[in-house]
Structures are given as C-alpha cells and as structure tokens.
Write a structure and sequence with these properties.
Strand content: under 5%
Number of helices: 13
Helix content: over 70%
Radius of gyration: 21 Å
Structural class: mainly alpha
Largest sheet: none
Distance between the termini: 27 Å
Number of domains: 1
Order of helices and strands: HHHHHHHHHHHHH
Length: 322
Amino acid sequence: MTRGKRRSPVMRLLRWSVTLLIVGVVGWLFARSLAENWEQVREQHLGFSWWWVPATVCFAGAVALTGTAWGRIVRWLDPAAQIPAREAIAVQCLSWVLKYIPGQLGSVTNKVLWAGRKGISRTLVLISFLYENVFLLIASIVPAAVILLISLGPEIFGANATLLIVPLLVLVPAAVVLYRPAFHTLISLPARKLLKSEVPREYFLGSRRALLSLGEFLLPRVVNGIGFVLIAASVSEVTPEDWLPFAATYALAGAVGILAILVPSGLGVREAVIVVVLSQYVPTTEAVIISLLARLLATLGDVLVALLYATIRQTLPKETRP
C-alpha cells in the first residue's frame, strides 16, 4: 500500500502529461485544419448565410446519434454493462474529436481506455469499434450508390471508376460482419495466435441485431445529408429532386474519407469526391465552393461536439468519465 501511495503522484503526473500532450496535438491539428479551411472559403468572398447554422448543428447531431447506435451495440454484446445513452454519446464525442490523430488511433484508444475504467472487456469494445465503422461504411455506400446510379446513370462511375469500385470492394469483406459465425471465425484466428485465447461467441451480434444496428447507423447519414443540402442551397440553386443525390454525395464522400485512415478526418479526400459528383449537377466552381464550405462547417461542428462532450461529462460519475 505504501509503495502504491508513493507511486500515485508519479502516475498522476504521467497521466496529466499524456493528457496535455494529446490535447495539444489534437488542438494543433484542429486549428491547422480550421485555418486552412477558413482561408480557402474566405478566398471565395462568400456572404454569411443562416443556413450554415442548422447545417453545423446537423453535423454535430450526427455524431451524437452515432454514439447512441454504438452504445446499443456494446449493451447487446454485454448485457451486464450499465451504459446510459448520454455516456455512450460522451465517449463517441471524445473519440470523434480525437479523429484528428491519423489512423483512428486516438478514437479507438479512447474507447479501449474507457472500457477498462468501466470494467468492460477491451476485446468486446474493439469488436464494437469494428462494427461501428463497418456499419457506417455500408450505410454510406449502398444507399448512396443506388441513388447516384438512378440519378446519373453508370456513366459517372465509368468515367471515375475508383470513385465507386474501391468502396464496393470494401463492402465484400465488410458484409462478413452481418453473419456471426463467419465474423467470429475471422476474429478468432488471429486472436488465438496473438492472445493465446478464444474470443467468446457472445462478443458478436446475431444477424437480426446486426441488421437492426445497421439500420440505426443510417440515421446519422440522413442527418449529415440534410446539413449538406442546406450548405449547397446557400451556394447554388438546388431543386427538390437534387436533395437525395446531394445527400448521397456527402455520404459517399464520408465513406471514402473513412477508408483514407492515414489522413486526419479524411482531409482532402471527401472534397475530391464531392467535386467530382456535384460537378454533374452544378458548375465545377460552385461544387468546389460547396465542398470547401462543407469542410469548414464540419470542422466548426467538431467544436460543438467537443462542447457536448464537456457538458455531458460533468453529469457522469467520476470513475466512468471518458
């Protein structure tokens, strides 16, 4: 006990040092991204539009909805886990802010550390993280591909083959998670070699719950799409028949951004996809402005996400705060 007490100040110092380092790195990456986006948007001499306010709120709200969907996955995998919706949202918000660390390292580490404090299996939370990202990909790519194919025809993807071929190829292994025996086998093989233990079958969703969860992850994409349409309407003449294709464009761009795991928050990747697709509906110059403006407002939405995290965190017991 005495040795533990002597070490506790050192551990507290180490903990605060690491925290400050992470906050500093994320803050610097965020500030750099915001400054670059603001400078690019400012060069377009845009006037302020009130549509930007609800659009920014939509981007932040989509993160909260993703948090509730992810929290439900964890509760299904571990029925004994007491995870209020607000706690899942707080964890998700912090992981979202940490996305500025490339490779999603910050996002997954935050959830793993939270699981340790909560007494939940870290392996289970890692699996829930895989479910989350795969469901987001499927919910983004499949509806977006159908909508854009109906709206534009296969020519758009023929001229820009990698725009859809790469995401569709990713869906092939991603679909494995919908079938529990296959996903369990896929995870268990490396786990036996690395961890020298079996991963419990209970750590995987049955097909029915996997499909229900997939449907729940569609909602954040819808909310994001609404925000993007509001942004586009502030720049171009967007008719009602264009609403679905524009929302689908943002969803597809977000999926491609997720796949670019080494790029902080898919920086630059999403914009390229948006410009390629939207240029079929509006002049290329307007498509570029919409993509830059969406990036700027999404970055400002991350400020709201951080504020939401800080607010909810104060309502949680100290020992379970992410």
